[in-house]
């Protein structure tokens, strides 16, 4: 398999390798949280060793695990879900490498190869990014994961509240004194150097969240202009949202045989201003008759979704839908042994 890197691209293979290994580390931290129930990951700031480098951990962030299924996230309003089976788990971290003066905002994705395909209905709602209309609209499920406080298992005990991922990222990059990360104790966090390079990255669902984090940092955490490397990510927002990324370096790495980057559907509006024979024949196609009413209605997005960033494609058919999507396929494409 060969990565298709456009001529004159600023895409850096070694950076992509480094970031994918950090994403894999975020997955390992999830595994540890499941096997080591005594691990206090929310307050653990121990450094990590990945790919021969040591990274300082500025902060780990998390969310409630009832959102593991990407299909459910794509199709569900988070406010409508209950606390059944709720358990807070790590979703990623903000790391710092002093030698390169680089900050890394890292998101893991869904944890089980088949989880994101268990629900085939992809009818996402949308809402303004960061509640600001001029930033464009984004997928409601992704947005709520990024911005909603974790209210804890008891609605009436504010001391159980945890900060949103958005707040964690702001605190980790801007810096904050002791005891101000949500409502749990922590040591003070130093502000990131203003000349630091900030990378945002994630795989699958994590790639969508990294996309949101990229614009959030650009718009709200001056003077940083983050660089996005998103792997196997679904579309996150509409055309107005995508326009706000102008001037940023953004790359989306995708397997052409992976179906997740094709979701949510960009559009199913068959009307065309073209006189092309194919487009006219498609307009006459009665799609509802080709699918069950439930399936067809489930495909209708509320937003024309757009990809973000320069496409970096490869083709690697592993023989199964899930295997075309998971991290090992992407490691092979990047030449990580």
TrEMBL record:
Sequence ranges assigned to domain Fungal lipase-type in this UniProt record: 104-266
GO biological process per UniProt: lipid metabolic process
Annotated InterPro entries: AB_hydrolase_fold (IPR029058), Fungal_lipase-type (IPR002921), Sec_MonoDiacylglyc_Lipase (IPR051218)
CDD domains recorded: Lipase_3 (cd00519)
Pfam families for the chain: Lipase_3
Matches recorded under PANTHER family: ALPHA/BETA-HYDROLASES SUPERFAMILY PROTEIN (PTHR45856), FUNGAL LIPASE-LIKE DOMAIN-CONTAINING PROTEIN (PTHR45856:SF24)
Entry protein name: Lipase class 3
């Amino acid at each position: 398999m060969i990565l298709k890197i456009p001529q004159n691209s600023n895409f850096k293979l070694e950076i992509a390798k480094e970031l994918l290994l950090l994403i894999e580390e975020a997955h390992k931290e999830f595994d540890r949280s499941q096997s080591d129930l005594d691990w206090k990951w929310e307050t653990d700031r121990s450094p990590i060793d990945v790919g021969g480098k040591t990274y300082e951990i500025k902060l780990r962030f998390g969310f409630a695990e009832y959102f593991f299924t990407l299909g459910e996230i794509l199709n569900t309003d988070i406010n409508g879900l209950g606390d059944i089976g709720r358990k807070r788990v790590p979703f990623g971290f903000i790391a710092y490498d002093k030698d390169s003066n680089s900050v890394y905002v890292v998101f893991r994705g869904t944890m089980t190869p088949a989880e994101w395909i268990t629900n085939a209905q992809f009818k996402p709602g949308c809402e303004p990014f960061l509640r600001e209309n001029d930033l464009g609209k984004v997928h409601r499920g992704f947005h709520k994961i990024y911005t909603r406080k974790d209210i804890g298992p008891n609605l009436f005990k504010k001391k159980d509240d945890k900060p949103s991922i958005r707040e964690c990222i702001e605190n980790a990059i801007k810096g904050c004194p002791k005891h101000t990360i949500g409502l749990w104790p922590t040591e003070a966090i130093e502000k990131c150097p203003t000349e630091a390079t900030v990378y945002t990255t994630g795989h699958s669902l994590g790639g969508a969240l990294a996309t949101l984090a990229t614009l959030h940092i650009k718009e709200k955490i001056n003077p940083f202009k983050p660089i996005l490397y998103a792997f196997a990510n679904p579309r996150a927002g509409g055309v107005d949202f995508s326009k706000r990324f102008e001037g940023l370096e953004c790359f989306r790495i995708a397997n052409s045989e992976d179906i997740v980057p094709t979701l949510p559907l960009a559009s199913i509006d068959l009307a065309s201003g073209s006189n092309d024979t194919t487009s006219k024949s498609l307009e006459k196609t009665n799609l509802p008759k080709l699918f069950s009413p439930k399936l067809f209605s489930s495909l209708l997005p509320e937003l024309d979704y757009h990809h973000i960033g320069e496409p970096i494609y490869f083709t690697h058919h592993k023989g199964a839908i899930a295997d075309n999507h998971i991290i090992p396929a992407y490691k092979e494409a990047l030449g990580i042994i």
